[in-house]
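Thought: the user asked what 3-deoxy-D-manno-octulosonic acid kinase looks like in 3D. I have the sequence; next I should run the structure tool and report back without guessing.
Action: structure_tool
Action Input:
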Amino acid sequence: MIIHQQENECIWYDPTLVVGEPRQYFDIHFWHQQAAVTGSAKGRGITFFVRGPKMEMALRHYYRGGLFGKLVKDQYWFTGWEETRSGAELRLLAYLREKKLPVPRPVAARAVKTGRTYRADILVEKVPGARDLVAILSENSLLAHDYHAIGRLVRRLHDASVCHSDLNIHNILRDRKGKLWLIDFDKCQQREGEQWKEDNLARLHRSFKKEKEKRQIRWQPEDWAAVLKGYNHIRK
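Observation:
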């Protein structure tokens, strides 16, 4: 990664993926002018999908959630460039890629400082042909070996000592070849110890149950046992 730092702005980017001025990569108007906006997804904010010179990418601005987010939409207290949400997420993605975890390739990140606060954006690979587990389970059931694979994926993440702070079935994707991916590593971090791993698994379990109640996804409580078998590398 190359770091381009000025007094009030810091941009991290992969020079093999960013062609030209990196700052324009964070301007959605630039992508509209190139007729390169391929879609969008609405969550806390809007994630735009754009077609770059090397790959399709997801452009996301960082927004606050919760009650405080209604008062302060997208500003964060500045304590240093390396501690910004965008910089931290980009580094974590790079670390996970080094560990051979299936996460999107980090392309670039930016933080812009105003006074004592900053705003941030990140640009990552859009996994081709991938859908989240909610979309998949809304149409079809998964087999035991699919749930084993989900458990193994989470175990690999935990073995890398990374806690996904929002581990839910919206953030687990499966592509056309059946490969699983993990996305959205905002506020995630490396941790020591073991207790957090159990809590992280419990969060994923609650996600299955929540979506079952909310959307009637094709998941049954007994399917969770298959996830745990995969997590614990139990083959029978």
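Thought: the tool returned a structure. Summarizing for the user.
Final Answer: Structure for 3-deoxy-D-manno-octulosonic acid kinase predicted. The CA atoms of residues 93 and 152 lie 19 Å apart. The helical segments are 28-33, 66-71, 85-98, 133-137, 144-159, 195-215, 223-231.
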